[in-house]
Amino acid sequence: xxxxxxxxxxxxxxxxxxxxxxxxxxxxxxxxxxxxxxxxxxxxxxxxxxxxxxxxxxxxxxxxxxxxxxxxxxxxxxxxxxxxxxxxxxxxxxxxxxxxxxxxxxxxxxxxxxxxxxxxxxxxxxxxxxxxxxxxxxxxxxxxxxxxxxxxxxxxxxxxxxxxxxxxxxxxxxxxxxxxxxxxxxxxxxxxxxxxxxxxxxxxxxxxxxxxxxxxxxxxxxxxxxxxxxxxxxxxxxxxxxxxxxxxxxxxxxxxxxxxxxxxxxxxxxxxxxxxxxxxxxxxxxxxxxxxxxxxxxxxxxxxxxxxxxxxxxxxxxxxxxxxxxxxxxxxxxxxxxxxxxxxxxxxxxxxxxxxxxxxxxxxxxxxxxxxxxxxxxxxxxxxxxxxxxxxxxxxxxxxxxxxxxxxxxxxxxxxxxxxxxxxxxxxxxxxxxxxxxxxxxxxxxxxxxxxxxxxxxxxxxxxxxxxxxxxxxxxxxxxxxxxxxxxxxxxxxxxxxxxxxxxxxxxxxxxxxxxxxxxxxxxxxxxxxxxxxxxxxxxxxxxxxxxxxxxxxxxxxxxxxxxxxxxxxxxxxxxxxxxxxxxxxxxxxxxxxxxxxxxxxxxxxxxxxxxxxxxxxxxxxxxxxxxxxxxxxxxxxxxxxxxxxxxxxxxxxxxxxxxxxxxxxxxxxxxxxxxxxxxxxxxxxxxxxxxxxxxxxxxxxxxxxxxxxxxxxxxxxxxxxxxxxxxxxxxxx
Length: 734
What we know:
By secondary structure, the protein is α+β, with helices and mostly antiparallel strands. It is built from 22 helices and 20 strands. Helix 20 (489-501) links the parallel strand 4 (482-486) and strand 5 (509-511).
């Protein structure tokens, strides 16, 4: 070919290239216009509901632990090897902590909450894209808008939790499998295994979705290449290798919990179906308490529950009918020919995969050895809405054709009526759902509710916790005092983490409620400002302390106010009697006691302990952030205090009384008050003439193994072994 001919060829090729580009750009613009309204409506409404008043998010123990693990790993320059403890005691896989780790340093709880919400907004877009691509635009519109405005998906998108990230992951997994089964794309296996592994790491209820990959392999095994298998193996090693390494290094740390879980008694029930409906229906009128702001709204949207249930049942009937249609159309033709027809139909394959997505997790949830929880159903919730969207779209196309023959009307007019009816129905249901969800969010934001343990919202909102800590810090600065947080077990981890990571924090001592109250020691140079949460022992005992005065309260959304007390150095219980103790023992000693034999709560023995134990923190195993204390000032430990009643001959009477002050960072500036309830028989029998008291401690340690020069961070926190502190002390009770 001559130079002139080459130039002409290049010019022609270039023109074709630009013409094709122009066509593609025009096609993209027309496609965007077609999808802009249905997809945009779902995305805008869904985004508003997931981001509105996001500061009211729940922030409890699991949320604090997810961030604490990431922050601790950054401090120790360690690789995160495990997740946080699961409900059965074993450690979760580390995928969720990897995803949330950046927010431990950047953005904190609110940043991590926004990330969770954005991930679930992405799920709405994926839901629409999958439905529109493989079913129809109508199916995408219905599925995405109904999902975007439903109560369950909204609330689980608004707080930090590992399974709250499931929706976009399982939708991506489903899309990759559809690319393989429907479009016969190559290279899908590695991506599907990776996404399945991430979903399973977020929650084990996703593990049965491995069946979808098996079905996809049955359809496409002839197209597999060696590199596909290699990519899948790499994905498995990357996701499950750290857990295998942890079990090897820890000698099977999690095997006991897993074995105990597997040996539970198996039962069959339908709680999974009940919870699925609860997630899809509006919250009940009484969900936030009988006197809550939501009651009137809940009654108004209650009728929608029956509509949602009917849509779900109708969608499942449509799905079964779609799968059975090839055999019903060719009755008497055996099963081979209809099977070939079905397998060749792309829409039938989509329906099969949808049915498996719903059925596989449910099979394990209907028959189980551990109680099913509502959040277990998050793994199949997108599939339920895809099925509803597909059924509604099919009905809007089938009904006009069926009625046109009977009513002898123009099919186009009936098709338009059916389309308008579909839009009106989906729009009205979604609008009603939106009213209900906004009512719930407004109720939480206003604080006008009286229930804190709900399926979709539980615990003190983050905004209230932050306001309480800000008030504590303000009072501390104003009085030039030290700070302490006296909380219940539920609130200790979130308040402790927020306190430890606050820029204005003064490293408050954090402790919980089992008979324990911290007071400033007589040698302390500054008073102590204590934030006491409702239900804690401190909230009960502080009014009885001489030298303690209330200085304010902090309003809490949906709960009793937090209390602020200023406590002077050397404060003590009213009516204390001194106890002779050895000097310079180097261990906690009882300094004084109060014995109350007549009270509405019964007899009680209250002891004030002085002399914090000498305990040097091992920085390689120190627990930081998890419970809020600074291990460099006072390592965290669990303290057990015992009181053995004695008779006149000094012989023990029955078993000793015990109380636990758990997760206490006991500094030299604090004394500790413990309270033990005395049984009525001991209090009234007249046999007890003295008490022998003692203390034990179990230091907290974080398990951080090493692999050569590589430091590893885990979610394993242990307390123990128990060790005695000093010698028992005996004192007489007059």
